[in-house]
Design brief:
Length: 249
């Protein structure tokens, strides 16, 4: 129970990596806020799974791209649990298209959710963490933010932005005892990647040195490490979780 007594807010925790992270951090003893934007039923199922395992959790709706909603998520966590020790900025979307055809709305939607959403939640939690003189912020980037990707100019720009934001906040907040890191997953089996055509997935598996997609739980365990005391001397870093994909490219 390495997170006993702590409170974690996880954005986009109704499914995929966020869901696995909520379950993992709850198993480690944290009380968990399960944020979602649309899938109320799935978020409720994550909460009840945590409760069935003897943990405490609360589902909170809110679009992270809206600063007001981001403040509401954090305020609800504080109201119900009294503190926020860990923020995992996981909510994310894709709107893939080749750049020449990318619609302005699809550019903006991805930047708003995947980059501004991270900033909004960080800003909403900072006063609390600075007062506590302690906190962990873990932001979901992607190997696409490191390498770029055809058809994902919006997503790559947002995920590269998350890395710049992570490093800047890490510098600003280290004197306050707040550690800020990013995780950059490669190809993880979730609804987000299930949308890719079968041939694209097969080609990707072939290029991953470990020969298979990652599981959401394998990212969640790295997030748990970054949330725990074991990582107390790590800040401003990007941990790549990709089965070796980036070294093979
Ligand atoms: P996913 O299965 O598509 O789940 C996305 C989650 O984000 C859902 O819980 C969704 O909530 C939530 N969400 C979407 N827009 C939101 C908003 N505006 N406000 C609040 N919540 C919002 O995604 P995933 O594959 O688990 O990915 C999680 C994170 O890891 C994302 O940031 C993604 O970019 C990153 N990542 C994933 C992979 C991968 O291979 N899967 C690789 C690299 C990075 P609802 O259920 O309510 O819609």
């Amino acid at each position: 129970m390495v997170l006993a007594g702590q409170v974690a807010v996880i954005t986009g925790a109704s499914r995929g990596i966020g869901r696995a992270t909520a379950l993992c951090l709850a198993r480690a003893g944290a009380r968990v806020v399960v944020n979602y934007v649309r899938q109320e039923q799935q978020a409720a199922e994550v909460v009840s799974e945590i409760e069935q395992n003897g943990g405490q959790a609360l589902a909170v709706a809110g679009d992270v791209g809206d600063p007001e909603a981001a403040r509401h998520i954090i305020e609800t966590a504080l109201l119900n649990f009294g503190q926020v020790d860990i923020l995992v900025n996981n909510a994310g979307i894709t709107r893939d298209s080749l750049a020449a055809r990318l619609k302005a709305d699809d550019w903006q939607a991805v930047i708003t959710t995947n980059l501004s959403g991270v900033f909004n939640c960080c800003q909403a939690v900072l006063k609390t963490m600075m007062r506590q003189r302690r906190g962990r912020i873990i932001n979901l980037s992607s190997i696409v933010g490191l390498l770029g990707n055809t058809g994902q100019a919006n997503y790559a720009a947002a995920k590269a932005g998350v890395i710049g934001l992570t490093k800047s906040l890490a510098k600003e907040l280290a004197p306050r005892g707040i550690l800020v890191n990013a995780v950059a997953p490669g190809f993880i089996a979730t609804e987000m990647t299930a949308a890719l055509p079968e041939t694209t997935r097969a080609e990707l598996y072939r290029r991953i040195p470990l020969g298979r997609p990652g599981q959401a739980e394998e990212v969640a365990e790295v997030i748990l490490f970054l949330a725990s005391e074991a990582s107390r001397y790590i800040t401003g870093q990007v941990l790549v979780v990709d089965g070796g994909l980036t070294i093979a490219m």
